[in-house]
Known about the structure:
The protein is an alpha/beta fold and 250 residues long. The chain has 2 domains: 2-26 and 120-249, HAD superfamily/HAD-like (Rossmann fold, 3-Layer(aba) Sandwich), CATH 3.40.50.1000; 28-111, no CATH class. Helices cover 41% and strands 17% of the residues. It is built from 10 helices and 9 strands. Helix 7 (148-157) links the parallel strand 4 and strand 5. Bound molecules: magnesium ion.
Amino acid sequence: MAHLQIADARVYAELAVFDKDGTLIDFHGVWGGRAQRAVAALGDCVDAALHDALLDTMGVDRDTGRVDGQGLLAQFPHDVIHAHCLQTMIEAGVPPNRADRELRARFAGVMRAPPQRDEMLAIGDLRALFSGLRAAGLRLGIVTTDDRDATLQTLSMLQVSEHVAQVVCGNDPVAAKPSPEGILRIAAALDVLPQHALMIGDTAADMRAGRAAGCFCVGVTSGACDAAQLRELADVVVNSVHEIHVLRTA
Ligand SMILES: [Mg+2]
């Protein structure tokens, strides 16, 4: 348990639950590029119009590859993205069986590939941040829409695995954010009241999940959403996770 200073807010917390993409690692670097490569990998079953329609479906800018913070890719797990892209392909005239097969084989092969070091940019020195928060007595958790294997590999690459007590992922049998279920599971597993937990994330879904769980919600503008989008839902909005400072331990 620790007293924290986050912008102008002073908060007492026992648990900090972080989102992963856009909060701990650069979001656009991974997912904008992956989405573009995944659509390209569909090859000849996608014409130019369907190529653009699939990027629109995911909320990815056709020209810049920038990901819309309020869009599908920024907020939902792989199975939901698959379902919406399948619908887009069927509406464009691709036979349903072929669309499903191609998405599973080619598209998912890119989207769900193991994290690569060169596409994964950590947002600042996470090892220092996490060890400082742990030393102050905080427990740490992660709730992400990404798959479990990719998430654990990412935490290992970031050299923070030892500090993270609980991880809930998009392919776990837990309702995705904005449901509070993942956060509540972590709080229960660590025997912490959700009111004594922070939820830190870069999207509206993160803030809605945190709010529904009863957490103090910290929006970070290092990812998919800007301050105006987060401010409606967050208790405090900061540039990055590195604006969470330990005041003193309880
Ligand atoms: Mg995120």
